[in-house]
């Protein structure tokens, strides 16, 4: 079996505050194979953006990795010194963030930002870098790329800017792209364009993608596999079709039920009562137990580990009981 | 009240204070100065303004640790036998009073005009901002001198109280522009927020919205500004008194003391002018440091 | 249209002056600039029903919301509430009485509550302002009732907004809007900033309240799936104009206008039915410089010469209203 491109093993991320240490990510483990698109979905506070930030090495202090390992192509990257991590960022791992307005430096032309990234990571001279930059802009669907390369970010619309950001992320041909809510700030018709662009260009370049979002629809369209996060833990992880149509974890089922569907009429949406627990008040045992419609005694006491259920893996005692 | 106090001591601001040695030291120094100034009648070893208690024989004594000094006058005496230490405390009282009063007046004028300017917008805003621009193009001392001069010309036989009022007015008119601009900016931001729109939809009158909704939300930066402006006001007052156009000579402030002592600087009696100067610096510095800490503590992004 | 509608809007228009300052215009010879945020809209909402307005950024739906509730005066056209013109009433003596009957819920749960006020004051402000209570105890009791009707508890009235989550704050907003027992609620993207499970809670509450109190809603959203869940009638807006207005069943089953079809196609296919999708073209143009004729023509697969020149009017067509030459001519 080939080594996965990215391996995250038992990752824990904590925030020391003066009121005690908060564990924002509690023992997360998953893999991403080369060229695969993995979705990381969850609601606000679940820890999905933190996962992305930890992998790129851009955790905001005082947040830090408490324990666990992150391996890129078999080599650890979570404990690298700043300079080495900086080389990996951009060359091996590219990043796309939510807000295209703040992802680009408003004072430099788009071309300058692209060529700067290219020459930093690849052995090309200025002229070659510029050619490559124009190619990238064309690939991401920007019309008249050869002229627009010398324009400033404010001269592009929101959707165009996000395309530039994608071009920037792919500039040095990284093997992995971490995309944190890349379409949330865009109009719905532009979202569709950007999603399909991301999917096609990553397949073309053979880059794997970790797509972090709260939008299940985007996940359904783009991803091969999906991990559902709840309160800093993985509730369920598996192939997209399985998780969406045959969710094994009650939280995933509740989530799918609360999404209004385009193809059926319901009087009331399925409602999960309560809300995600705050980091300083995570319940004992399974974090979902106060809200779970199928809770029983064991859930309140012991925390479940991810176990195989059909084609997916879910952290839920319902299935362990059946298997036992 | 108890609940509010509990919330305060539990909060980030108090915690930030406790963990900043500079802030604690500055606060302690400032409190000591304020205490001595406020309770000078009881704390000062002598009353330098009670002419009966002065002994001309004790004039121009150096500080206690030097040759010729005594423990009775810890920091030395001036040319009329007044104890410098006591004069410092009484002087600080005048300086602090004038400084604080002008800051309060500045704040009222500045916040009021800034709120109006930001909330109403349009021509009112343009008008008020032009006034600000004009005021900023004059050096503050000149404005204070001008108002002071006009005041003296209008009331040549003025009582001391009137002189004080004119002085406070003069200093506050140099400082209000900062408040107006800061508050105007914050008001323009808050005005577009949805809770203001919600109040309009309910039918609340604009003046009431300005006063009850917007004002509490724009006061944060004003507090920081006020703390720093206290130091500036004290120094402005000292400058004016040094120039002889500040407080009346019967109530000498630190500035007056510096001026008086200046004449004796070159005859070697340095203590008469240096101690008031040092006190002025100490007060201004501690208040400034407190203002710095407060600004960082109240900035939500830095927490 | 059965019965008399509660809200009727006729040829409503709102133009914003975004010209550079006077000095710049004189010195740099720049022209005055105007944005036609709302460009001639007409619709009616029946009592107890929900009309949803959908569209992307720049379509003017939020401006329509604010026009209806009187936050801006219209540049042209009229808004009638229960037969009475609102623009005139709101500057006259009947303003307060009218305001009691219509309220608004906003999009951002964090900016829509005054962070320095207690929940009691926030929810009770309308009661105080309109003189609907006579003393503090009555206020506390009424606020407690309102909080309970949205699924919160009476004790919450002594807390501050920052002690609540986004979904809870939105419920407080709803409680505030219901304080004067209004008949009409304008909801400007009330769930767009909320997580999916919280959104479900808030939408359920809104539906329950509509049933129990006979409320009429104008629901603004960009999310067609949510609109499908809550609306009776749907209006699709593009660059300040209504391009299609139909009841829910018709709009989703047989969308006529090319833009409506594009929007529906753009929705991610969460159940992965593998339906065929036509690729989406272009982006919403700059509202300062809208295309001539039909403003959608640069992106429309059915555009012809007439579309570039003549602006289509909203017309009745097979039970719905649509503004499209291609549809009327039968070219689609």
Short description:
The complex is a heterotrimer of chains A (324), B (303) and C (332). Chain A has 324 residues and is α/β, with parallel strands linked by helices. Chain A is built from twelve helices and twelve strands.
Helix and strand topology:
The complex is a heterotrimer of chains A (324), B (303) and C (332).
Chain A: E1 6-17, E2 20-32, E3 37-41, H1 48-56, E4 64-72, E5 75-76, H2 82-91, E6 93-96, H3 100-103, H4 110-121, H5 126-139, H6 145-148, H7 158-170, E7 176-180, H8 188-205, E8 208-213, H9 216-222, E9 225-230, E10 233-239, H10 240-245, H11 250-258, E11 307-309, E12 312-314, H12 317-323
Parallel strand pairs in A: 3-8, 3-9, 6-7, 7-8
Antiparallel strand pairs in A: 1-2, 1-4, 4-5, 9-10, 10-12, 11-12
Helix pairs in contact in A: 4-5, 5-7, 7-8
Chain B: H1 2-10, H2 12-18, H3 21-38, H4 40-43, H5 84-120, H6 122-136, H7 140-154, H8 160-191, H9 194-202, H10 206-243, H11 254-262, H12 271-298
Helix pairs in contact in B: 2-12, 3-5, 3-12, 5-6, 5-8, 5-10, 5-11, 5-12, 6-8, 7-8, 8-10, 9-10, 10-11, 10-12, 11-12
Chain C: E1 7-17, H1 22-28, E2 34-45, E3 50-54, H2 61-68, E4 76-81, E5 84-85, H3 86-90, H4 95-101, E6 102-105, H5 119-129, H6 136-149, H7 166-178, E7 184-188, H8 196-213, E8 216-221, H9 224-230, E9 233-238, E10 241-247, H10 248-253, H11 258-266, H12 305-309, E11 315-317, E12 320-322, H13 325-329
Description:
The complex is a heterotrimer of chains A (324), B (303) and C (332). Chain A is an alpha/beta fold and 324 residues long. Chain A contains twelve helices and twelve strands. In chain A, the strands form two sheets. Chain A has an eight-stranded mixed beta sheet, with helices on both faces. In chain A, strands 2-1-4-5 form a four-stranded antiparallel beta sheet, with helices on one face. In chain A, helix 5 (126-139) crosses helix 7 (158-170) and helix 7 packs parallel to helix 8 (188-205). Chain B has 303 residues and is mainly alpha-helical. Chain B is 73% helix and 0% strand. Chain B is built from twelve helices and no strands. Chain B has helices at residues 2-10, 12-18, 21-38, 40-43, 84-120, 122-136, 140-154, 160-191, 194-202, 206-243, 254-262, 271-298. In chain B, helix 3 (21-38) packs across helix 5, helix 8 (160-191) packs across helix 10 and helix 11 packs antiparallel against helix 12 (271-298). The longest helix of chain B has 38 residues, at 206-243. Chain C has 13 helices and twelve strands. The longest helix of chain C has 18 residues, at 196-213. The radius of gyration of chain C is 21 Å and the shape is globular. The chains are: A alpha/beta (324), B mainly alpha (303), C alpha/beta (332). The A-C interface holds A 43-44, 157-160, 187-193, 195-196, 214-218, 220-221, 240-241, 244-245, 254-255, 257-263, 265-273, 275 and C 56-57, 165-168, 195-201, 203-204, 207, 222-226, 228-229, 252, 262-273, 277, 279-280, 283-284.
């Amino acid at each position: 079996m080939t080594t996965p491109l990215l391996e995250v093993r038992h990752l824990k991320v904590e925030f020391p505050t003066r009121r005690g240490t908060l564990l924002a990510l509690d023992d997360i483990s998953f893999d991403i194979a080369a060229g695969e698109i993995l979705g990381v979905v969850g609601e606000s506070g679940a820890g999905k953006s933190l996962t992305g930030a930890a992998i790129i090495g851009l955790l905001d202090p005082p947040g830090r990795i408490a324990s666990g390992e992150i391996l890129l192509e078999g080599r650890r990257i979570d404990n690298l010194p700043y300079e080495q991590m900086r080389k990996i960022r951009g060359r091996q791992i590219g990043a796309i963030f939510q807000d295209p307005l703040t992802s680009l430096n408003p004072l430099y032309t788009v071309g300058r930002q692209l060529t700067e990234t290219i020459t930093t990571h690849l052995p090309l001279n200025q002229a070659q870098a510029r050619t490559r930059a124009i190619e990238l802009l064309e690939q991401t669907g920007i019309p008249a790329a050869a002229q627009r390369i010398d324009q400033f970010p404010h001269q592009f619309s929101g959707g165009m800017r996000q395309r530039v950001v994608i071009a920037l992320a792919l500039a040095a041909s990284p093997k992995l792209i971490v995309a944190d809510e890349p379409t949330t700030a865009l109009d719905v018709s532009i979202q569709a364009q950007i999603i399909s662009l991301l999917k096609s260009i990553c397949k073309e370049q053979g880059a794997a993608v970790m797509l972090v979002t709260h939008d299940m629809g985007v996940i359904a369209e783009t991803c091969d596999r999906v991990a559902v996060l709840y309160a800093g833990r993985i509730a369920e992880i598996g192939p997209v079709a399985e998780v969406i149509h045959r969710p094994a974890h009650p939280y995933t089922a509740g989530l799918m039920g609360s999404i209004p569907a385009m193809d059926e009429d319901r009087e009331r949406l399925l409602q999960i009562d309560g809300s995600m627990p705050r980091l300083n008040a995570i319940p004992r045992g399974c974090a979902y137990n106060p809200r779970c419609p199928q809770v029983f005694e064991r859930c309140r006491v012991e925390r479940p580990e991810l176990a195989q259920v059909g084609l997916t893996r879910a952290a839920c005692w319902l299935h362990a009981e059946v298997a036992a | 009240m108890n609940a509010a106090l509990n919330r305060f001591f539990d909060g980030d601001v108090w915690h930030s204070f406790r963990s900043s040695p500079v802030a604690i030291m500055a606060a302690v120094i400032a409190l000591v100065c304020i205490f001595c100034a406020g309770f000078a009648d009881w704390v000062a070893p002598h009353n330098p303004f009670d002419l009966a208690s002065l002994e001309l024989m004790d004039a121009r004594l150096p500080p206690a640790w030097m040759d010729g000094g005594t423990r009775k006058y810890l920091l030395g005496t001036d040319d009329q036998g007044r104890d410098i230490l006591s004069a410092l405390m009484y002087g600080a009282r005048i300086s602090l009073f004038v400084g604080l009063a002008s800051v309060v007046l500045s704040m009222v004028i500045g916040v009021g005009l800034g709120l109006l300017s930001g909330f109403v917008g349009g021509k009112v805003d343009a008008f008020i901002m032009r006034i600000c621009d004009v005021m900023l193009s004059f050096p503050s001392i000149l404005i204070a001198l001008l108002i002071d001069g006009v005041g003296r010309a209008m009331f040549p036989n003025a009582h001391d109280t009137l002189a004080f009022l004119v002085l406070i007015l003069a200093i506050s008119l140099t400082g209000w522009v900062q408040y107006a601009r800061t508050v105007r900016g914050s008001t323009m931001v808050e005005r577009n927020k949805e809770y203001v729109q919600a109040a309009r939809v309910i039918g609340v009158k604009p003046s009431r919205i300005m006063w009850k909704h917007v004002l509490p939300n724009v006061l944060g930066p004003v507090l920081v500004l006020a703390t720093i402006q206290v130091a500036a006001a004290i120094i402005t007052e000292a400058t004016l008194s040094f120039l002889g156009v500040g407080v009346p000579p019967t109530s000498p402030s630190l500035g007056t003391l510096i001026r008086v002592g200046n004449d004796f600087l070159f005859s070697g009696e340095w203590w008469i002018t240096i101690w008031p100067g040092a006190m002025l610096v100490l007060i201004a510095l501690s208040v400034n440091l407190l203002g710095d800490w407060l600004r960082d503590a109240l900035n939500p992004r830095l927490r | 249209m059965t019965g008399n509608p509660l809200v009727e809007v006729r040829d409503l228009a709102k133009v914003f002056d975004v010209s550079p300052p006077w000095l710049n215009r004189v010195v740099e010879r720049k022209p005055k600039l105007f944005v036609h945020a709302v460009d001639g809209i007409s619709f009616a909402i029946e009592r107890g029903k929900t009309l949803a307005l959908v569209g992307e950024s720049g379509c003017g739906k939020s401006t329509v919301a604010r026009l209806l509730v009187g936050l801006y005066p219209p540049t042209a056209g009229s808004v009638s509430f229960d037969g009475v013109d609102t623009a005139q009433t709101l500057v006259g003596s009947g303003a307060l009485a009218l305001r009691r009957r219509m309220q608004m819920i906003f999009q951002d749960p964090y900016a829509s509550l005054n962070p320095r006020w207690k929940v009691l004051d926030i929810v009770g402000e309308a009661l105080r302002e309109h003189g609907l209570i006579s003393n503090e105890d009555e206020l506390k009791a009424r606020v407690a009732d309102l909080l309970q009707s949205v699924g919160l508890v009476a004790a919450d009235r002594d807390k501050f907004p920052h002690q609540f989550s986004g979904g809870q704050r939105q419920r407080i907003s709803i409680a505030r809007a219901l304080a004067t027992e209004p008949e009409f609620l304008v909801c400007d993207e009330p769930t767009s900033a909320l997580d999916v499970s919280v959104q479900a809670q808030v939408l359920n509450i809104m539906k329950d309240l509509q049933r129990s109190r006979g409320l009429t809603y104008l629901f603004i959203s960009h999310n067609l799936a949510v609109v499908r869940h809550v609306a009776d009638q749907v209006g699709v807006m593009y660059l300040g104009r209504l391009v299609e207005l139909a009841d829910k069943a018709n709009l989703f089953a047989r969308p006529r206008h090319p833009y409506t079809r594009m929007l529906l196609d753009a929705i991610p296919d969460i159940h992965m039915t593998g339906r065929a999708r036509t690729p989406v073209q272009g982006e919403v143009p700059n509202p300062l410089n809208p295309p001539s004729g039909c403003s959608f023509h640069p992106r429309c697969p059915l555009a012809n010469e007439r579309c570039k020149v003549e602006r289509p009017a909203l017309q009745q067509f097979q039970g719905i209203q649509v503004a499209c030459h291609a549809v009327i001519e039968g070219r689609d």
